[in-house]
Amino acid sequence: MTGDPTAVETRRYVRAVGRHRVIWFIAALALLAGVCVASVAVGSALLPPSTVWDALTSYNGSIDHITVRDVRVPRTAIGVMVGAGLGVAGALMQAVSRNPLADPGILGVNAGAGLAVALGVAYLGLTQISEFIWLALLGSVIAAVLVTAIAARGPGGVTPLRLTLVGVAMTAVFNGMSMSLSLVNPARFEHVRFWGVGTIADRPPGTAGFIAPFVIAGLALAVIGSRSLNALALGDDVARGVGVRVRTTQVMGLVSLVLLCGAATAAAGPIAFVGLMIPHAVRLVAGVDQRWVILYSAVAGPILLLSADIVGRLVLWPAELQVGVITPLIGAPILIWLVRRKAVR
After folding, report:
1. For residues 65 and 121, what is the distance between their CA atoms, to the nearest angstrom?
2. N or C: which end of the chain has fewer CB within 10 A?
3. How far apart are CA 3 and CA 63, in angstroms?
4. What's the CATH number for 76-340?
5. Where exactly are the transmembrane stretches of this chain (predicted)?
């Protein structure tokens, strides 16, 4: 028996889609590896691949080897973790809120973390990532709870539109307060001046290792809850009907979001646009399955962030532009192109 022709064709289609996603995911991993190599090789001093390889395998303490091992490798590692964190955080925010415009930056999570760090710098004299990462996490939590609570007070409870409007308003408030603190006490903020615009350069030693547990924990929670997010996209009632614990899924997504955004903001400052654009871009290949969207976002986020960082190193070479300035310049045209496509609409 050959079975139902429709069922056979459906199975073939599902297998073809699965192969398509796997092939593109492998290609994305290869592209990420290439961008990491370029990130290590490109800078104020352009190093050939042989020098980079020797610095990683046969370290001799020369200036070039110190540049690779102690400056560019940690910078690239931070870029990978921050990019993955922001990309997945954007996918989570859009899935949990069922709002395609949702973004950690738009909904105030990044701005809340930034304000908490600014308060720590202004009043506690904090200077190290190990000191203010806890403030960044706390600021992310307070911002998320505050925006959700304000949005819930309107008729009908929390809606995607109301959540976005409240988030945009609170983001402006948080950013204004952070800017005011830096203007009132500019000397105190001098050593975190570039952090305020978003940067992965000149981070304190050990930054990559310190944020790694938070990013890994956030990514793990996102992957664990990704299957439930598919049901949540159909509405709370449908999700409950298929056995999904809606509140548990939402809380898990929020905890993952806080870990990812708090760690990324503490390490690199408030970098915008990555969380908004990356999920839209990867859906062209991953479709609407949140399991694949999250996996692709974890790879595509670092590709965008490191590419922007490389462009920032070259555009004013041998000087640099910070990555927080470059990401909107690269991301905005791509997002405009994406939203014009019929498949995305």
Report:
1. 33
2. N
3. 68
4. 1.10.3470.10
5. 22-47, 105-126, 132-151, 163-184, 254-281, 293-315, 321-339
* DSSP reduced 3-state for 104: coil
Domain ranges of the chain: 1-69, 76-340
Single-letter amino acid, residue 116: A
Which long-range contacts does 308-312 make (Cβ < 8 Å, 24+ apart)?
309/39, 309/75, 309/79, 309/200, 309/201, 310/35, 310/38, 310/39, 310/42
Chain centroid offset of residue 38 CA: 20
Distance in angstroms (rounded) separating the CA atoms of residues 277 and 338: 9
Whose tokens are 């200077």? That residue is 127
State how far the Cα of 41 lies from the Cα of 44, in Å rounded to an integer. 10
Q: Cα separation of 91 and 288, whole Å?
A: 11
Look up residue 324 and give its amino acid.
Answer: G
The rounded Cα 12 to chain-centroid distance in angstroms is 34
pLDDT level of residue 157 (50, 70, 90 thresholds): low
CB atoms within 10 A of CB 42: 17
Q: What is the mean pLDDT of residues 122-140?
A: 76
Question: How far apart are alpha carbons 322 and 58 in whole angstroms?
Answer: 31
User: Considering only CA atoms, which of 104, 68, 59 is closest in space to residue 83?
Assistant: 104
Which residue type, as a one-letter code, is found at position 288? V
What is the predicted pLDDT for the residue at 68? 81
- The answer, as to whether pTM is greater than 0.90, is no
Residue 12: both structure tokens together: 């073939």
